[in-house]
């Protein structure tokens, strides 16, 4: 997030920026208010850009905190955006966090494949191929 802060505060591009046009298009979504970086979301609200050190705390609190419901990655994304937080790797972090949650793994419903009706297979040439199964010798049974 540092290149956006530098650009919005001074108007100068950070030296690590390679594609200036793409960076300028992305920078149009960011705002700097009292030294804090915000990003405009798709609902036209402002979400605070969080530091990397704050991400685990936010994920833990929203996913399994006091009011957390151990939701999946999409629901987790919506809740965190509704709470007003943003960081660039959100989707990847949500999926990884939801996959690693022990309680979610333990109590989540199992995914079952839907039952399908059996269909018999008809062959165009009956008895065209013969097969034989060889079994034995079997031990003698008592009695």
Automatic annotation (TrEMBL):
Signal sequence range: none
The record's section on Pfam families has:
Integrase_H2C2
Integrase zinc-binding domain sequence ranges:
52-107
This chain's protein is named: Integrase zinc-binding domain-containing protein
Q: Which organism is it from?
A: Platanthera zijinensis
């Amino acid at each position: 997030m540092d290149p956006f802060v530098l650009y919005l505060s001074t108007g100068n591009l950070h030296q690590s920026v390679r594609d200036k046009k793409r960076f300028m298009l992305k920078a149009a979504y960011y705002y700097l208010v009292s030294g804090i970086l915000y990003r405009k979301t798709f609902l036209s609200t402002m979400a605070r850009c969080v530091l990397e050190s704050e991400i685990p705390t936010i994920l833990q609190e929203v996913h399994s905190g006091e009011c957390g419901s151990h939701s999946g990655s999409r629901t987790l994304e919506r809740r965190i955006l509704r709470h007003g937080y943003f960081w660039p790797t959100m989707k990847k972090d949500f999926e990884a966090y939801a996959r690693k949650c022990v309680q979610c793994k333990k109590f989540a419903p199992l995914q079952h494949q839907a039952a399908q009706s059996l269909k018999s297979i008809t062959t165009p040439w009956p008895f065209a191929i013969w097969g034989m199964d060889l079994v034995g010798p079997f031990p003698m049974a008592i009695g």
